Amino acid sequence: MEFLTPTSLQEALEAKSAHPDAKPIMGGTDVMVELNFDHYRPATLLDLTRVPELAECDRDNGSIKLGAGVTYTRVIAELGDQLPGLAMASRTVGSPQIRNRGTVGGNLGAASPAGDSHPALLAADAEVELSSLDGVRRLPVDEFYIGVKRHAGRDDELITAVYITPPQGPQQFCKIGTRNAMVISVSAFSIALHPDRKEVGTGIGSAAPTPRRARDAEIFLAEALEADGRWESRGALPEGLAREFGDLVKAAASPIDDVRGSAAYRLHSLSVMARRSLGWAWDDYTSARKA
Amino acid sequence: MRITTTVNNERHEVDDVWEGESLLYMLRERMGLPGSKNACEQGECGSCTVYLDGVAACACLIAAGQAEGRDIVTVEGLAEGDDLHPVQQAFLDAGAVQCGFCTPGLIVATHDLLARDPRPEDSQIRESLAGNLCRCTGYEKIIDAVKLAAGRMASTSAGGGA
Ligand SMILES: Cc1cc2nc3c(=O)[nH]c(=O)nc-3n(C[C@H](O)[C@H](O)[C@H](O)COP(=O)(O)OP(=O)(O)OC[C@H]3O[C@@H](n4cnc5c(N)ncnc54)[C@H](O)[C@@H]3O)c2cc1C
Ligand code: FES
Ligand code: FES
C-alpha cells in the first residue's frame, strides 16, 4: 500500500490525478473502520489532513465557504450562529472524539443516506465544490448524491468545500435513534425558512437511497404562507398546516426495512419530525419579530 | 514506512509500519505503550482515546501515517512519575474502576473534558463521555469520579495558585 501525504491543495490534486484509485482519508472515521475490518484494501491512501486549504472556513459575499476538512467540533464552535441547522446536526454526530476528527467533507465523500450533515445541507441549498487539475466546479448538493453511498465526484476530483448562504430564517434539525448519542439515524429531517425569497428548504435523511428534499412539501408550505400573508404577519400557523406538511414530507421518502428500523417507522417518525420542526422553526420566526 | 512522532514528550521512530495500520496498533504493538486499549477498532467504545496535537480522538481511527510528525499524549503520559494525575486518583478513590478496561480511555476523555470545562454539570459529563463505553460500573461511579477530580483540581488551582 502507498501512503501519500500532500501538503498543499495543488499537490493533493496532482496526486489524485496520478492515482485516480487512491482513497482519500481525512478524519478517518469511516475509512479506518473499513481498513481495520479489512472490508477493502486500497492500493493507495491519500491523506488530506496536511492540506491547509481544506481546513479553512471563509466568509465571502454573504456566503460561507466551508472547507471539506473542517471538523464537526469546529462547525459547532464557529458556525453555530449562522448555520444553526448544520451545527445542530453536527452536535448529534457520534461522540466528542468522533466530532473532533470527522468532517463534513468526509460525510459527503461517504455519501451515506444516513449521514447527518446532508439534511441540513439540503435545506440550506448548499453547493458542493469539486476540484481537479482540470478545474473547479460547483454542484447543488441535491445533484451530488446519485445513489446509495455514491456521489457525483469523478475519480480525479476531490471534494474541496461546501458553499452555504446562511438561510435568513430559522433552521432546525432532528434525528431519531435508539440513544441520545452515538447513533446512526433511523431517520432524520431538517428545515430552513427563507423568508427573503419566501421559500422553504427541507432535507430527509435515512429514508431513501440518497438524502433528498421533499419538494412538494416545500412548495406547499411556501405557497400556504404566501397565500395568507403569513411571511409578513408572522401569525400563528393555521390548524392542520404542520400536519399536512408532515404528510407531504413523508410522501417524499421511500425507505427500506433494515436492522435500524422498519420502513413504516421511518415514514411515521419523519412526518412527526417534520411537523414538530416546522413548529419550532415557526416559533423562532414569530419570536424574532417580537425581539 | 518509517514513522517519527513525539509520544508523551519522547521522540519515537518506528520502521516497517504498514500504511493501513492505525495509530492504536502502532502504539500498542510497536512502541510498547499498551495503556490505550483496543476493544472495538471502530470508534464506538473510546477505550483507545488519546490526544493528537492536543485534540482527543480515537487512536483506532487515526492512520499511523497521519500521526507522522505529530504530538501524541496517551494515558501513560498523564501521571508525573509515580504521582497519579488527579483524574486517575479520583477514579481509584471513587470506585470507578472495576475490570479497568475502559479506564484509560475514560481518564483521557475526562482529562479533556475538565480542561475545557473545569466544573461540568452532570448532563455535560454524560454528553462528554458518551463515546466511552463501560461494561462494569453502570457509569454512576464514573460520574462521581469526574466530579471528585473536578473538585480537587479546582481547590488545588485556587489554593496553590498553580
Ligand atoms: C463511532 C462512530 C459514530 C459515528 N456517528 C455518526 C453520526 O452520528 N452521524 C453521521 O453522519 N456519521 C457518523 N459516523 C460516520 C463518520 O464519522 C462521518 O461520516 C464523518 O463525517 C466522516 O468524516 P471523516 O473526515 O472522518 O471521513 P473519512 O473517513 O476520512 O472519509 C470518508 C469518505 O469520504 C472520502 N473523502 C474524505 N475526504 C474527501 C475529499 N476531500 N474528497 C473526496 N473524498 C473524500 C473518503 O475517501 C471516504 O470514502 C460515525 C462514525 C463512527 C466511527
Ligand atoms: S478501540 Fe478505538 S474506539 Fe474502541
Ligand atoms: S470497568 Fe470494566 S469496562 Fe469499565
Number of strands of chain B: 5
> How does the overall form of chain A come out from the CA principal axes?
globular
Low-confidence stretches of chain A: none
What count of structural domains of chain B? 2
Report the portion of residues of chain B in β strands: 5-15%
Write out the strand line-up for the largest beta sheet of chain B, numbering strands in chain order: 2-1-5-3-4
Low-confidence stretches of chain B: none
Number of helices of chain A: 12
Largest interface: A-B, 28 and 30 residues
Amino-to-carboxy terminus distance of chain A:
59 Å
Description of the structure:
- The complex is a heterodimer of chains A (291) and B (162).
- By secondary structure, chain A is an alpha+beta fold.
- Chain A has helices at 9-18, 31-36, 72-79, 84-91, 96-101, 104-110, 117-123, 141-144, 215-227, 230-233, 241-252, 263-290; strands spanning 2-4, 23-25, 44-47, 57-60, 63-67, 127-132, 135-140, 145-147, 150-151, 158-164, 171-176, 187-194, 199-205.
- Chain A has 2 domains: 2-42 and 53-164, Uridine Diphospho-n-acetylenolpyruvylglucosamine Reductase, domain 3; 171-290, Enolase-like, domain 1.
- Chain A is built from 12 helices and 13 strands.
- In chain A, the strands form 4 sheets. Chain A has a 5-stranded antiparallel β-sheet.
- In chain A, a hairpin with a 4-residue loop joins strand 12 (187-194) and strand 13 (199-205).
- In chain A, helix 4 (84-91) packs antiparallel against helix 7, helix 9 (215-227) packs antiparallel against helix 11 and helix 11 packs across helix 12 (263-290).
- The radius of gyration of chain A is 19 Å and the shape is globular.
- With 162 residues, chain B is α+β, with helices and mostly antiparallel strands.
- In chain B, strands 2-1-5-3-4 form a 5-stranded mixed β-sheet, sandwiched between helices.
- The longest helix of chain B has 21 residues, at 140-160.
- Chain B is globular.
- The N and C termini of chain B lie far apart (42 Å).
- Bound molecules: flavin-adenine dinucleotide (FAD) and FE2/S2 (inorganic) cluster (2 copies).
- One FE2/S2 (inorganic) cluster (FES) binds next to loops of chain B.
